[in-house]
Amino acid sequence: MERLVFATGNKGKMREIREIMEGSGYEILSMKEAGIDPDIVEDGTTFEENALIKARAVHELLPDDIVLADDSGLVVDALNGEPGIYSARYMGEDTPYTIKNNNIIKRLEGVPDEKRTARFVCAIAAVFPDGTEKCVRETVEGRIGYEEKGEFGFGYDPIFYCPEIGCCTGEIPELEKNKISHRGKALRKMRTELEK
Length: 196
Fold this sequence. Notes:
The chain has 196 residues and is an alpha/beta fold. It has one domain (3-195): Maf protein (Alpha-Beta Complex). It has helices at residues 11-21, 47-61, 97-107, 174-180, 182-195, and strands spanning 3-6, 27-30, 66-76, 117-127, 133-144, 160-162, 167-168. A seven-stranded mixed β-sheet has the order 2-1-3-4-5-6-7. Helix 1 (11-21) packs across helix 5. The longest helix has 15 residues, at 47-61. The mean pLDDT is 94.
């Protein structure tokens, strides 16, 4: 079975990836499961660049596998696109998301509903054994809520209100969220590319 290695150590992400890629015919592994733990410096200026940096770094170590990497984040319009590509490292990598989320809510104090627009962005890059590269990007539009809600999902899910579902992405179970999420949409798009 052909191996598909996803350049992440995030357990939440791996769970999502396995659910969406189920039945694809690939053995899906995280970097750790593939036996590597490279120190990758993400110094790109876009989600796509960072996804490719990660995929290329892992491909160098596992040239016979298909390597996928994603870079995703929250883009808040009223905060000039912050946290953007720095979403994971925003306010420090080890800062709990409750602190990050509440900081964003505080910074948007007094900002009316219609100006609280935001989107989750996900770019997924693939590097194939022959060195071919492919990149896809998807988004989900919404706005920033006024408090954290829900106990599902991870990261910025509790403050991201999605009109499509009428609640925060932290309020819906993972399987349901995968149908509308930026990563879910990008993974399905990439899966279509892999099946070509």
